[in-house]
């Protein structure tokens, strides 16, 4: 249980960090905050395409930021869960480490809200367990 709690806490922290970095980059990088320009012959499909392209760029940037933060913190999510991924035995080690960081980046970028919710549930569960133990 403590391993799972530690995993969720680290992933939630990385998710928060990646989200904060992405928000700051979103404000400063021009193509991420595209505004729909009013054109006389502009169709609704062009607006939908631009909005979709902007969201894809932001999601990709969140994945890159999550990967960079995981590499800086040297987070290996599969090892934390005591799993051996397919790439763990590859040589040179930089390949397996890079794939670990990319997997952490994907988990952080696209699973952030899940990690926060699960971490909150586990915290409440542990608080209830402590309350029951103190009552006895």
SSE layout and pairings?
Elements lengths: L1 H27 L15 H30 L3 H4 L12 H43 L1
Helix pairs in contact: 1-2, 1-4, 2-4
In a nutshell, what does this entry contain?
Helix content is about 75%, strand content about 0%.
Describe this structure in words.
With 136 residues, the chain is mainly alpha-helical. The protein has one domain. It is 76% helix and 0% strand. It is built from 4 helices and no strands.
What brief labels describe this structure?
single chain, 136 residues, mainly alpha, 4 helices, 76% helix, 0% strand, flat
Order of helices and strands, N to C? HHHH
Ends distance = 22 Å
Number of domains: 1
Strand content: under 5%
Shape: flat
Radius of gyration, in angstroms, nearest whole number? 20 Å
In terms of structural class, how would the helical and strand content be classed? mainly alpha
Helix content: over 70%
Report the mean per-residue pLDDT as an integer: 79
Number of strands: 0
As residue ranges, the low-confidence spans are none
Largest sheet: none
Number of DSSP helices?
A: 4
């Amino acid at each position: 249980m403590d391993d799972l709690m530690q995993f969720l806490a680290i992933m939630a922290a990385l998710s928060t960090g990646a989200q904060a970095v992405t928000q700051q980059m979103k404000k400063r990088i021009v193509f991420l905050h595209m505004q729909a320009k009013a054109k006389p012959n502009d169709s609704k499909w062009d607006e939908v395409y631009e909005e979709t392209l902007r969201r894809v760029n932001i999601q990709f940037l969140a994945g890159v930021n999550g990967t960079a933060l995981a590499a800086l913190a040297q987070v290996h999510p599969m090892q934390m869960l005591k799993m051996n991924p397919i790439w763990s035995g590859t040589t040179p080690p930089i390949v397996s480490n890079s794939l670990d960081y990319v997997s952490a980046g994907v988990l952080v970028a696209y699973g952030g809200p899940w990690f926060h919710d699960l971490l909150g549930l586990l915290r409440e569960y542990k608080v209830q367990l402590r309350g029951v133990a103190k009552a006895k």
